[in-house]
Amino acid sequence: MIVSIAILLIAIIIILIFVLKKIRYTEFKINEVMQDVVLSQDVLSVDSYEEIISLARDNSSDFLFRFKEYYPSFIEKLLEIEPKLKTSELTFCAYLKLNFSTKDIATYTFVTPKAVQNRKNRIRKKLSIDSNIDIYVWFNNIK
């Protein structure tokens, strides 16, 4: 009787060891798959970001739509601050979020740098951004 109990206990221990090894192997495989997913998302993020930059440089009408996909909460937070922002103002804010210089924005939107500077000042006023705060830093702090 004691021998049969000992054999049963040994069999249970062997089965437990096998199950634990199987669980560890499964966890290892799950971690591998998760790392692959994260890496593929990073590549997608880089491609999406480059696409947004390209659309902005081309002054494409698809720019704001794609920008919203890449920065989903940015536009929402701007609209919480000032609900009456127009689409053109949101697009301009997106350019600032992407750290485009005054000269670059002027080139991409076919206006003068002075017009861009005036627009920055109007946006500052609408969003109550103090003049001693760097507007680029302010926009980059919106997540």
Structural features, described:
There is one protein chain. This protein is mainly alpha-helical and about 140 residues long. It has helices at about 1-55, 65-70, 70-80, 85-95, 100-110, 115-125, 135-140.
What's the topology here?
Elements: H1 2-57, H2 63-70, H3 72-81, H4 87-97, H5 102-109, H6 113-127, H7 135-140
Q: How would you spell out the order of helices and strands?
A: HHHHHHH
Query: Residue-averaged pLDDT, rounded?
Result: 85
Low-confidence stretches: 39-44
Strand content: under 5%
**How many E strands?**
0
The major beta sheet can be summarized as: none
Distance between the termini: 69 Å
Counting DSSP H or I runs of 4 or more residues, the number of helices is 7
Structural class: mainly alpha
Helix content: over 70%
Query: What best-fitting shape do the alpha-carbon axes yield?
Result: rod-shaped
Radius of gyration: 28 Å
